[in-house]
Each structure stands twice: as C-alpha cells, then as structure tokens.
Amino acid sequence: MQSSKLIQLLKTLSKKEMKEFQQFTNSEFFNKNEQISKFLSYLIPYQQDFESDQLDKETFFKKHYKGEVYEEQKFRYLLSDLTILLEEFIAFVEYRNNNFQQKYFLLQGLNKRNQDKYFLQDLEVIKKLSNSNPFRDSNYYFNQHNINEISYDFTSEKRNRAFDSSLQEVIDNLEITYLAKGFKYYCEMINRRNILQVSYNLSFFDQMVQYLQNGSFDDIPAVHIYRLIYITLTNHNDQENYKALLNALEKNGRLFSQKEQRGMYVFAQNYCIKRINQGEPAALEEIFMLYQKMVEHGLIYEGNYVSQPDFKNIVTTGLRLNEVDWVNNFIEDYKSKLNPEFSENAFTYSMAWVHFNKKEYDKALRMLLKVEFNDVYYHLDSKSLLMKVYFEMNEYDAFFSLIDAFKIYLRRNKFISDFQRETYHNFILLINKLMKIKLGKNVMSWALYDEVNQTKPAADLVWLKLKAADLAVAAKLKR
Questions:
Q1: CB under 8 Å, gap of 24 or more: what pairs does 471-476 form?
Q2: Final residue of a structural domain among 43, 67, 96
Q3: Which residues contact 102 (CB under 8 A, 6 or more apart)?
Q4: pLDDT tens digits, residue range 331-345?
Q5: Do the domain assignments include residue 477?
Q6: Quick one: CA dihedral 139, 145, 151, 157, positive or negative?
Q7: Long-range contacts of 15-21 (CB under 8 A, 24+ apart)
C-alpha cells in the first residue's frame, strides 16, 4: 500500500489540504460510500510517516469489516475509489484557484439556462478580470479568445447570427495565441536540437517565420520577443538582433510570469554561450551581465529553489572574469537557497572552480572527485575542469587516462548534440597538444598557437588561448 498511487498523492498534501480533503470526502455530494471516509480517517494519522510498518491494510480491514475474512479485491476497490476522489479533489483545488475558469464555466452555465441578464453582467465581470491580469502572455490572449468566443456564441444565438464585432476578435486573439504559444515551443525545439541529439518536424513553423518577417506582430510582445529569440538561435552573427532582444526584455519582461521571463533570458544565454565557444571574449561579459540581471530580478529560481545549473554557471562565469568578490558574495547569499537534494553537488562543483581560480589545484581536485554527474552538462563541465586541473598539476598519467574516457563518453552518449560534441572534441584535441608540449614530446610553434586561436567552436577557448600564449612565451617564439 505504501507504494500505491494513493499514498504518493497523499504525500503531496499539506496539513490544511488534508483537512479539506477529509471534508471533501465526508460530503455526500462527492462521496456516498462511508467506508471510503473511514479509510481516509485511518490514513490521516500517518501523514507524517506513510512509510510506517504500522500502516497495514489488513489491520484496517479487520477493524472496519468486522466478522469478515480479509479480501484483497475488496480492499483494492476501496483503494481505487479513494484515489479517484483524491484526484477529483486535486482538480477541484486547481479550479478553485483559477478565478477566470470559474467565471468562464459560470458563463457557459448561464447561457445554457437562458439567463441573459446575468450572463451579460458576468460577461463584463470576466472582461475586467482578464484585463486586470498584469501579464500579456499566450494565456492572456487565449483567455481573451475564450471571452470573444462565448460572447459571439451568445449574440449569434440571440440575434439570429447578426454581425458581431466579437467574431473578428475571436480570430485575432486565436491567431495571437497560436503564434505566441507555438513560437515559444518552436524556439525550445530549435534550442534542444542545438544542444541535444534530437530531431523535430519544424516545417510548418519554418513557413510561419516567413509570415512574421514583415514585423506585422511586433506590437505584441508575446510574439515579437520569440521572433527575436528565434533569430538568436539560428543566426549567432546577428548582434543587432541580440541587442533588440535585450531591449525588448528590459521593456516588456514584466508582462510575463517570472517562469517565462526566466526562459526568455535562458535563450539569450544560449546565444552568448555559442559565441563564447566561437572564441568571442566579449560574449563572456555579456552573459555575466545577463546572469546579474537575472539575479537582480529573481529569475534564477525554479519553483522555490535557485536553479542548480544557473548557480554553477554564474559562479564559473564570474570567476573567468575575475569577479571574485561578487562570486563569493553570491555563493554566500544563495547556497542555502538551492534544492537540498542537489545543493551539495552544486556547492562542491562551484567551490572546485573557486579553488581552481585561486590556483589551489589540490583543493579543486578533491572537490571535483566528490561531484556526482547527474546530468550531461555536469559531466561535460566537470570533466573539462578536471582535465585543466591535471594539466596545471602536471598529472600526466591521470590526464591522458581522462582524455581516453572523455572521448569514449562523447562518442557513446547519444544525447549530446553534434555542436556540443564538436565543442568538447576540439577542447580535448587542443589541450592534448598543449600537454604534449609541456611534456617535451612536441615543440611549441606558431602553427599550433594559430590553431588554438582559430579553432572554433571549443570549450574554454579563452583558457586554451592563455595556455598557448604562455607556452609560446616559454619557447620564446618571435614573429
């Protein structure tokens, strides 16, 4: 029973919600089976410990089905019925918290009951409710579409399909909804295709891009911003478009929820990351400014916790720019706001970077060996940092062993995109050549120096260029 769907869902309820669910279950309107109410009453005392061995189905059965032999099937029916009630309660809670949906369904009911006077009164109420929403995202336009549609249905029925302006608004808001929501996911598909080895059929939206190129929806931020995002994802050389995106986010970001704003800034980050891997130093400063803006506006949270990837990326970016004091303050202020499930990993990885930046390579190594690779990005970033630590410490055997393991990982992991695979493959190729020069196996040359500076994309290209310059100076190369 402890592993059942019922128990897993009950675990998500707060004490207040559990009390409300009991009231819900005790209401004859929702439940007429007294045994279900008794079953819930039996479960409630275990809310803090549903894993308890004392929570036993046969114990409940013996108490509430006196004189009957335990029947597994009868208990399964009880379990199933209470689960269904709990699902209805969860749906009811969501409905109760959505004022717009409540009013919308009320309008449908009033229209069916031919209560024209009250329908028109509540139609004005729902219009004001929708317009009071501070956001102008795809959900807003979908709500506007629903208002227009039910208004049109009402007038067409009452006026024998006489012309009504809401019909035009039905189409206008449906089109905006489709474009805003569709291009949001279209951009996400392109982004994932750039990062992971996945493919999507995007032919329809590829045509829609052409439709939007004349700027006909640029007065709608929910469409305009995603059109700008699309360009950053497909043309990393268009920096004027990137500036336009930042201006649009600064001007209209408040029209979207924090969750959606965060997603928009992440798209802008990915544009910078691609340019960083192409060896553009200015892009590193730009992405750090983005992170600072996200911290300022509280956009580094996913739910109640600071995003684990954002935490580590902010630290590593800041340290690469020698923003040591800012990074130390950031770690101090936000380490307690990480999800406890991942906080140790994110903090450990971040401290490895802090020690690496201080040239405390032994400490950085100890930290890195504690990091768990719970996703592809941690694996890639941690392995490349570990390789740099071995390079700096002259740990040759460990270095070359790691190179072999890293190559195998890049080759076998099917979720790494071609771009990412090329980025880290080039990093391995270049750092391997630099290490062989340190070992004296090869001689530093201008050809290698130029190769480091010209190879794109490559992870940690700025660091690679610095190491190549150091080796060139040590070899006293002269043009």
A1: 471/434, 471/437, 471/438, 471/444, 472/444, 472/446, 474/444, 475/443, 475/444
A2: 96
A3: 95, 96
A4: 999 999 999 988 888
A5: yes
A6: negative
A7: 15/47, 17/93, 18/44, 18/47, 20/89, 20/93, 21/86, 21/89
pLDDT in tens, 238-295: 899 999 999 999 999 999 999 999 999 999 999 998 888 888 889 999 999 999 999 9
Rounded Cα distance between 317 and 320, Å, is 5
Residue 417 lies in a domain: yes
Cα–Cα distance between 314 and 329 in angstroms, integer? Answer: 12
Length of the chain counted residue by residue: 479
> What are the residue ranges in the chain where pLDDT is below 70?
159-165, 478-479
How confident is the model at residue 2, as a pLDDT? 72
- Give which of 320, 339, 319 is closest to 329, Cα–Cα: 319
What local confidence, expressed as pLDDT, does residue 59 receive? 82
pLDDT at res. 419: 85
Domain boundary among 68, 96, 124: 96
Q: Is residue 160 part of a domain?
A: no
Q: Omega of the bond prior to 457 within 30 degrees of 0, cis?
A: yes
Question: Is the model's pTM score more than 0.85?
Answer: no
Written as one string, the DSSP assignment of 150-218 is: HHHHHHHHHTTS---THHHHHHHHHHHHHHHHHHHHHHHHHHHHHHBS-----HHHHHHHHHHTT-TTT
Q: What pLDDT is stored for residue 112 in this prediction?
A: 94
Instruction: Return the SS3 of 331.
Output: helix
What are the Cα distances from residue 312, in Å, to 176, 327, 382? 37, 10, 11
194-205 burial, b for 16+ CB within 10 Å, e for fewer? bbbeeeeeeeeb
Domain boundaries, position 425: 373-479
Rounded to whole angstroms, what are the CA distances from 123 to 108, 138, 448?
10, 21, 72
Number of domains in the chain: 2
**Residue 179 is assigned to a structural domain of this protein:** no
Nearest to 196 by CA among 415, 373, 2: 415
At 189, the amino acid letter reads M
Angle, nearest 10°, between helix axes 203-212 and 221-234? 110
Only one residue has tokens 């209401």, namely 27
Q: Amino acid identity, residue 226? A: Y
* DSSP3 helix / strand / coil % (the chain, rounded to 5): 75, 0, 25
